[in-house]
């Protein structure tokens, strides 16, 4: 015998199922987290994203009452890590830190990726960064004017390192050479740290990097700062001219770092992670570390997942236009 269920009965069953699911999700979120959380960093240890991730993760872990373990997954400008993050169980126990390179530009550079912007749920922006061009200490040009003249006299012969095609450092490079109107060879590495190491060793002419990872080497005179793509000088590098001061106002390199979770992560869990991120960046420990790195925490109105989503949407379109020739 076949039993037919009426529309009202089906609606009641659906409502009951939804209520049961909602209660289960709420209970899960209430207990979250019950074990350590993994934060995937799309680059090698020592670079900007890694330093910011470790700084924020320590304080987020304290706020959540659980350790946050850093997992460095380098390769393909960060897309290897994001592919790993997109496949993770959407339960809040695997999150990733990203930037305009990994979460926006990469979709133009690698159009056949196994993930899309919709594969991730934004958690919170955690840092604002500033891009710097730094040269090997024995590079013949002493300032930006001399550097541009040298580059134009030697097209294609200058090598600038970055953290991989699609990374935020790559975007700094692209913005710089475009604004300067020069032909330079952009050399990709599996992270900012190995690129900086080669610049220190004079294996390459310079690096496109964020202040968070290159400031110390500039202050220690291991490399020579050329220009910062900012509207104001950085407190940690008071002698480094801004792009406008150096005569290249079109060079802008102010970026962001944000946290993301796999699509399907419960909203209540996202809310807990967002609250922990907000608490973390407001601690004295993070503020001091960020100040040392010439990195800025988000303003009070910049902590929301919605704001981070707006940044991703904006930058996906921005770099679709800038990087059309780089698509693989």
Provide a descriptive summary of the structure in words.
- The chain is an alpha/beta fold and 328 residues long.
- Helices cover 44% and strands 19% of the residues.
- The protein contains 11 helices and 9 strands.
- Strands 1, 2, 3, 4, 5, 6, 7, 8 and 9 form a 9-stranded mixed β-sheet that branches.
- Helix 2 packs across helix 9 and helix 4 crosses helix 6.
Describe the SSE topology.
Blueprint (H helix, E strand, L loop, with lengths): L6 H25 L5 E5 L6 H17 L3 E5 L6 H8 L7 E6 H10 L10 E17 L7 H10 L5 E4 L5 H13 L4 E4 L3 H9 L5 E5 H9 L3 E6 L25 E9 L4 H15 L2 H9 L12 H18 L6
Parallel strand pairs: 1-2, 1-3, 5-6, 5-7
Antiparallel strand pairs: 3-9, 4-7, 4-8, 4-9
Helix pairs in contact: 2-9, 2-10, 4-6, 4-11
Number of helices: 11
Instruction: State the separation between the terminal residues, measured CA to CA.
Output: 59 Å
Quantity of strands, as a count: 9
**Strand count, sense and closure of the main sheet?**
9 strands, mixed
Sum up the overall morphology in one term.
globular
Overall mean pLDDT stands at 91
Low-pLDDT parts are none
Helix content: 40-55%
Structural class determined from secondary elements: alpha/beta
Task: State Rg.
Answer: 22 Å
What portion of the residues fall into strands of 2 or more residues? 15-25%
H/E element sequence: HEHEHEHEHEHEHEHEEHHH
């Amino acid at each position: 015998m076949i039993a037919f269920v009426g529309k009202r009965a089906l609606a009641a069953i659906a409502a009951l199922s939804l209520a049961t699911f909602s209660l289960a999700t709420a209970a899960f979120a209430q207990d979250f987290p019950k074990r350590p959380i993994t934060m995937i960093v799309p680059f090698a240890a020592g670079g900007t994203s890694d330093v910011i991730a470790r700084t924020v993760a320590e304080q987020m872990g304290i706020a959540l009452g659980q350790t946050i373990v850093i997992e460095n997954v380098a390769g393909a400008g960060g897309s290897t890590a994001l592919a790993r993050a997109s496949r993770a169980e959407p339960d809040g126990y695997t999150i990733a830190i990203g930037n305009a390179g990994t979460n926006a530009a990469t979709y133009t550079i690698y159009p056949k990726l196994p993930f899309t912007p919709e594969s991730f749920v934004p958690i919170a922006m955690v840092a604002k960064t500033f891009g710097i061009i730094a040269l090997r200490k024995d590079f013949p040009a002493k300032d930006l004017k001399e550097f541009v003249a040298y580059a134009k006299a030697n097209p294609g012969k200058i090598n600038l390192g970055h953290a991989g095609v699609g990374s935020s450092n790559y975007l700094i490079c692209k913005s710089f050479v475009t604004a300067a109107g020069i032909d330079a060879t952009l050399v990709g590495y599996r992270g900012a740290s190995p690129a900086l190491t080669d610049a220190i060793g004079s294996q390459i002419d310079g690096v496109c990097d964020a202040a968070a990872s290159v400031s110390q080497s500039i202050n220690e005179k291991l490399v020579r700062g050329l220009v910062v793509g900012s509207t104001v000088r950085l407190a940690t590098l008071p002698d480094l001219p801004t792009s406008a001061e150096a005569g290249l106002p079109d060079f802008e390199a102010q970026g962001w770092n944000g946290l993301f979770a796999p699509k399907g992560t419960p909203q209540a869990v996202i809310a807990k992670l967002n609250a922990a991120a907000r608490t973390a960046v407001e601690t004295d420990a993070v503020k001091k570390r960020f100040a040392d790195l010439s990195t800025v925490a988000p303003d009070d109105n910049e902590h929301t997942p919605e704001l981070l989503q707006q940044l991703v949407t904006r930058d996906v379109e921005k770099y679709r236009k800038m990087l059309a020739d780089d698509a693989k």
